[in-house]
Amino acid sequence: MECLIEPKSITVLCTYQCTAACKQCCFESSPAIKGGLEGEVIRARISEAKNEFRELGLVVFSGGEAFLLKEELTRSVAHATALGLKTRIVSNGSWAKRLERAIRVCAELKEAGLGELNLSTGRDHQEFVPEDSIINAAEAAIGSGIEVLVTVETDTSESDCYLSLRGNARIKRLLDDRRFRIVNNFWMPFHDDAPVRRQEADIALLRKGCSQVFENVVLTPHDNLSACCGLTLEHIPEMRLGKNDGSNMGSLYRAQADDFMKYWIRMDGPYSIIEKVMGDAAGTYLEGVVHGCQACAILHKTPEIREKIVALFPSYVEEVMTRFAIKQAVDGIQASNAREMSK
Ligand code: SF4
Ligand code: SF4
Question: 261-310, pLDDT tens digit by residue?
Fold first, then answer.
């Protein structure tokens, strides 16, 4: 098989250390976790990715808390910008406790070329980072000309973080700006004691393919390369591509070319694959699933599902790979038309 897709983005998980310790954090991040990538290593890996992948256009800095990198984060944003890449930072906003500091930080990041700031908040986050910090960060970023997306965990019956934010006078003013958005996000439970959320699974969405796989590569805090930045990536050994050595990123990425499961996940998504191979029994495994990455972890970690996949996948190869090839061809034509139209 030939891998026909080039990654369009690289996600840099700068560290798993975090200023918060959200109970359902997919990486179990907290202030107690130590270590992460050095700034120089991050910049070298971004350069390597740019050289290896001709369609690479975006660098996402995330974690843990990316701002723990301090000035190395700004330097790395500037480095990516100098290579002609767009940049985005994902953060919990803990650095924006004081508005004056937030304004200074955002001005420096804008100067470095930062295009977008994604802020994560909600019931679990706000045990550690108050709503005010999110508002300061959003206001400072928009004021500096940086786009902002605030994602709020779906609330429980006792929390109302989403409506509280939307009702805030400062946020209402920001909502008039097209560069500011605020959305509700499914919050995936990682532990049995997770409180019930007011979220109903969107089954039609869950049955869609995963566009992350092949289109994104991930640099982990241990300098490994991973196949996606799905929330469950550290729970799925199959997503690990290998250790970076400074010159092997392209070969690590392309070694996935023979991995049929990745094509299948891209085309049909893990939720649909479980439904296909498990038939009437699928519901037992998919009960309570609200996120595709949750289904992906179940698919990879449940022995009965793995056994079924091993037994049945040969009968799906031809059909899935044909659909993949057709979709690639159509996407290629559409992209080329769009380029022509924009000339
Ligand atoms: S802010 Fe994000 S990375 Fe940090 S503990 Fe919470 S969920 Fe995890
Ligand atoms: S569905 Fe699977 S492959 Fe896709 S992002 Fe989630 S964990 Fe990664």
Answer: 999 999 999 999 999 999 999 999 999 898 899 999 999 999 999 999 99
> Which residue is listed with tokens 């097209």?
178
151 strand-pairing partners: 120, 183
> Which amino acid is located at 49 in the chain?
A
Which residue intervals of the chain bear CATH 3.20.20.70?
9-199
Ligand 1 atom nearest to 21, measured from its CA? 5
Q: Which CATH class is domain 9-199?
A: alpha beta
- Average pLDDT for the chain: 93
pLDDT tens, residue by residue, 29-69: 999 999 899 999 999 999 999 999 999 999 999 999 999 99
Ligand 1 is surrounded, with C-beta below 6 A, by 18, 20-22, 25, 27, 29, 63-65, 92, 120, 125
* 328 compared with 95, residue with greater pLDDT: 95
Give the ligand 1 atom nearest the CA of 27: 8
Which residues does ligand 2 sit against, CB inside 6 Å? 210, 212-213, 228, 230, 232-233, 236, 239, 265, 270, 292-293, 296
Ligand 1, atom nearest to 24 Cα:
7
8 A C-beta contact, residue 3 and residue 213: no
**Residue 213 CA, ligand 1 centroid: distance in Å:** 23
| Beta bridge partners of residue 153, listed in sequence order | 185
Position 4 confidence tier, pLDDT thresholds 50, 70, 90: low
